[in-house]
Amino acid sequence: MRDTYAKAEKIVSALSTDDKIRLVSGRDAWTTEEVIEAGIPSILVTDGPHGVRKQVAGTDHLGLNASVPATCFPTAVTLGSSWDPELIEEVGAALGRESRAADVAVLLGPGLNIKRHPAGGRNFEYFSEDPFVSGKMAAAMVRGIQSQGVGACLKHYAANNQEFFRLSVDTVVDDRTLHELYLTGFEIAVKESNPWTVMCSYNKVNGEHADVNRSLMTDTLRDDWGFDGLVMTDWFATSDRALALCAGVDLEMPGTGGSWDAEVAKAHQSGLLTTAELDLAATRVVDLALRAQNDAGTSQVDPAAHHALARKAAAAGTVLLTNDGTLPLERTGTIAVIGAFAKKPRYQGAGSSLVNPTQLDTFIAALRESLGDAASVTYAPGYDPLTGATEEVLLDEVRAAAAKSDVVIVLAGLPASAESEGFDREHLRLPDGHTAVITAALEANERTVIALQNGSPVEMPWAERPAAIVEAYLGGQAGGSALADVILGDVAPGGRLAESFPMAASDLPADRDFARHPKQVEYREGLYVGYRFHDSAGVPARFPFGHGLSYTAFDYTGLTVRKSGDGYSVTVTVTNVGPREGSDVVQVYVRDPESAAYRPEKELKGFAKVHLGAGESQKLTIKLDRRAFAVWDVRSQEWRVEPGDIEILVGASSTDIRARRTVKIAEGQAVSPSHGPAAYVATDNEFRTMLGSEIPTPDGPVPFHRDSTIADLEHTVLGKVAAGPLLELGRKSFDTTDADPTTIGMFEADLKEAPLRKIAMSSDGALTLKRLDQLIAVLNRTSLSAWRAH
Ligand code: BGC
């Protein structure tokens, strides 16, 4: 047991019940409560995940108020595409240093939810569609942050894969899919990096809000995985504070002015919440504060060094999707740079992760600086950087600039208003203005390279036409210079896709039920997410999972697979057979040709990143433990390995398999038979079987309750009357004076979709939960007298 924990237990044993109840909720937006006479300090937590967002004024949590400058590292989508845990650990350590220098005890990240659908508004904040990649990257980030004596926070646990009605929607998912896809990443990160904290998500999981879900918060997280830190709520995620404490959620964040204290005290008096449970939560809060205090100290931050690291990381996550040899660019002639992003880069996403960067590189400046007088660079904006819209006069400029240049580089992608925390994308297309600019450039000059800045996949019906396509994602504050590094070949493009780019969203089984119903989302595709779907169904992605080119080429030879411990070790020699140095990601997939349980065509179970000079070789060994071969057996509630043949595939993407071996697994157990959705989207019958229960009927908008939303209120006359003042009350809790239009859009979506309890909790006491209950009774016409009584 940690020293701090033993000390915390002792401190808590001497506290009054009132103090304990006070401690298990935050003090304000970003700090915890203190009890000075008992030696319990208050600590500061801040977002996260790719930069330190320590607010200077105001107390909101949605990115509205300015924060102190901090290095804006590439967002998780970019870091994930590096497939480089060592590099991510380095970035984590830099984040840890900056946190420490700013007196931040816990940095609220990494986020590691699975990208179930490419339209997820917050996908840019997450690593991958694959749990193995997500878990490994998150673990690396946590190790880095915590190496500096600052706590990390894994978020958002669990099954929070869309923004639409994120505070109340019920994720209906079968147990096997939940374990194999949506929990495994968290499990890897917990086991491999020992995070100080975990954040529970907003949504419900199979009918129960995450905060009150004991099976997730205690049985799985602590008992099965051995998590020994603190669980905090996402901001205003509390659905029932007393039950959350019983479930194992220790700290309510932010502070809600004691909104729940009376209910918690009552639950304690009645015995519903035991003293042991309350003490446990309070002990974990004190333990966290003591841990932070123990590790507190100053930290030297070198902003220039962190900027250089951000630049390196952005290039490492940049994915070269296609290339006819035009890249790396020759340093000569005339280069037309087209697209407003070249001067006003898209480099991070809106919402709680918004960082105030210490500096901001632009592509055009970096390109000009690197080229000097060797080549001439012209520029045409093409579109409005905020809206993405174009007009004929801008397109004429594009055509003119493209026609008279030797080569054209178009920067396109998604404007900030297209993807954000708080709402999902409605489609996967580029803004029409961007498409028009790309088309105009291509028509004027075939030697056109497209460089994309966006946080999640876009449809590219024109993908065959450009000379090259570079996916730069959201590269952070040094994204512009990193892109120039890659395009000029000063740095090899290091990225490989950690997500599939579909031809069209409608190809995807998850598209049938994504962000459609405010109350419920049904994961009828089961395990068929991302490449698990594309490769099983034979529906090609535009660019497959794991894909990414280099300026050189790699050969894989001498694959051997040997029994090693309880698993296998896979050895392969990688040789750089091209003319330049570069990096590659060797990917190991497992395929079970015959199983009682349905299985996707292949699943990633190991990978390694190698950096090789021209002509160099390296022998790599990648270990597969027993779990690599296991399925979650729902009946026995354990991971089981079925005896029989298993194929081990080694490749450069999920569709570029270079070598395979079959191994015979002798020892194992029978797994319970299970069927997936035959046509990749479960029918009612199939879904019932997968769930092992009836498919829940989504709640209707009435009768109203604490979890009802403003949108629900619109369904009755009385509700409509109440909606206006409630919206106003909600608005009051945020200061939007310095907010941009995207953030305001997110905030308005959040407000409409917020449960009424959130409006009460964030109202600074203007609307207590008790008063809210009375209002609800009135709106339901069940109790006018209850209202009059007050
Ligand atoms: C987000 C979290 C974030 C928190 C605090 C929430 O809206 O979901 O990721 O850490 O706010 O800003």
How far the N terminus sits from the C terminus, by CA atoms, comes to 50 Å
The total count of helices amounts to 23
Strand percentage, roughly? 15-25%
Major sheet attributes: 6 strands, mixed
Helix content: 25-40%
For this structure, the quaternary state is: single chain
Bulk shape = globular
**What hetero molecules are in the model?**
beta-D-glucopyranose
- Biggest sheet, strands in spatial order? 9-14-13-12-10-11
Count the E strands. 26
* Contiguous runs where pLDDT drops below 50 for at least 5 residues: none
What is the averaged pLDDT score? 95
Keywords: Hydrolase
Pfam families: Fn3-like, Glyco_hydro_3, Glyco_hydro_3_C
Domain Fibronectin type III-like: 584-654
Family: Belongs to the glycosyl hydrolase 3 family.
What do these coordinates show?
The chain has 23 helices and 26 strands. With 790 residues, it is α/β, with parallel strands linked by helices. The strands form 7 sheets. A 6-stranded mixed β-sheet has the order 9-14-13-12-10-11, sandwiched between helices. Strands 1-2-3-5-8 form a 5-stranded parallel β-sheet. Strands 7-6-4-16 form a 4-stranded mixed β-sheet, with no helix packed on it. Helix 14 (432-444) links the parallel strand 12 and strand 13 (448-453). Helix 5 (131-146) runs parallel beside helix 6 (175-193). The longest helix is centred in the middle third of the chain and has 21 residues, at 275-295. The two termini are 50 Å apart. The model has no long low-confidence stretch (mean pLDDT 95). Bound molecules: beta-D-glucopyranose. Beta-D-glucopyranose binds at residues 47-48, 61, 108, 155-156, 234-235, 352. Keywords: Hydrolase. Belongs to the glycosyl hydrolase 3 family. Pfam families: Fn3-like, Glyco_hydro_3, Glyco_hydro_3_C. GO terms for molecular function: beta-glucosidase activity. This is Exo-alpha-(1->6)-L-arabinopyranosidase.
